Amino acid sequence: MGLTGTALAIDAGNSKTDVALVGADGSLLGTARGGGFQPQTVGTGGAVDVLAPLVASALAQAGAEGPVGHVTAYLANADLPVEEAALAAEIGDRGWARSVTVGNDTFALLRAGLPDTGEPPVGAAVVCGAGINAVGLGRAGATARFPSVGRLSGDWGGGGFLADEALWYAARAEDGRGEPSELARALPAHFGLATMLELIEAIHLRGIPGRRRHELTPLLFDVADAGDPVARAIIARQADEVALMASVVLERLDLIGEETRVVLGGGVLAARHPLLHDRIVRLLAERAPKAVAHVVTAPPVLGAALHVLDRAGAPADAYARLRGSWA
């Protein structure tokens, strides 16, 4: 049977998906975690199929089958309004809830990092994890966002991008086309190899699985920490991009001159690496002097769950109870 006064919160990222069943009083009634959400690879229906067993598991923990009152789903790769509409229709057809809200997963980070004031939330967020994106909420329901589909839409950065940049600069450092850099030694050494040429061959011929390229991003930060100017320049460029995206969002929402929270999240930013974080804070202070940087490490599904409470007009103690579940 269905369970009244409940809603489903979903955060689906490239690598993992979290589902939570939330009560109107902020209680966490069931949770489930599964694999990545990639409609661009498997199609809309195939991607939503990944959610189905997780929704069933979260409901079963509460002794319910559904439908619940509402589902808020913040989804990776829902980058364009047409994609959001298609995903909302597909989720609606599954019968999990009587109403559906679908948005890009960066909005989950934003909501998780904004205060629970009872007023419509206002602020900006930049996520830098596997990729990079930024969104904002302004007054009267105004939003700002980017297509965020990679270089095609003008994006620069994210963990995968930084790994590729490290490889690019290391290759050129070794063959003489670029500046000397410790990256040319450190990157192949990580895989037990002696030269970049060996590493290039191993990656190209798939002797090293593509999924292992993400291991190079923390190595890039290690080399930068040791003082390598090439690695440090890459990190500085990432900071510049994060601050730029945040300030553009604030400008679009007419918040650039007001005290506004800028939420930072995703694996690269949540690590608060001093070279990156301190430069972001400094650049934000120059471009948006009243902006307040706020790093979020809580799982983004919290943002989806908070949106559920926002819709229900929940009391303050419900928000406190819900946040406490992820403290």
Backbone shape: globular
Q: In which range does the helix fraction lie?
A: 40-55%
Count of extended strands: 10
Tell me, rounded to a whole number, the average pLDDT. Answer: 94
What structural category arises from helix and sheet content? alpha/beta
Sheet with the most strands: spatial strand order: 3-2-1-4-5
Sequence stretches where pLDDT stays below 50 over 5 or more residues? none
Order of helices and strands: EEEHEHEHEEEHHHHHEHHEHH
Major sheet summary line: 5 strands, mixed
How many separate helices?
Answer: 12
- Could you tell me how far the N terminus lies from the C terminus, measured between alpha carbons in angstroms? 31 Å
β-strand amount: 15-25%
Radius of gyration: 21 Å
Fold and architecture overview:
This protein is an alpha/beta fold and 327 residues long. Helix content is 46%, strand content 18%. It is built from 12 helices and 10 strands. It has helices at residues 39-61, 81-93, 106-113, 159-175, 183-190, 196-204, 216-225, 229-252, 267-270, 274-287, 301-312, 316-325, and strands spanning 6-12, 17-23, 28-34, 70-75, 100-104, 123-128, 132-137, 143-145, 260-265, 291-295. The strands form 2 sheets. Strands 3-2-1-4-5 form a 5-stranded mixed beta sheet, with helices on both faces. Strands 8-7-6-9-10 form a 5-stranded mixed beta sheet, sandwiched between helices. Helix 4 packs antiparallel against helix 8 and helix 7 (216-225) crosses helix 8 (229-252). The chain is globular and about 65 Å long. It starts with 5 loop residues before the first strand and ends with a helix. The model has no long low-confidence stretch (mean pLDDT 94).
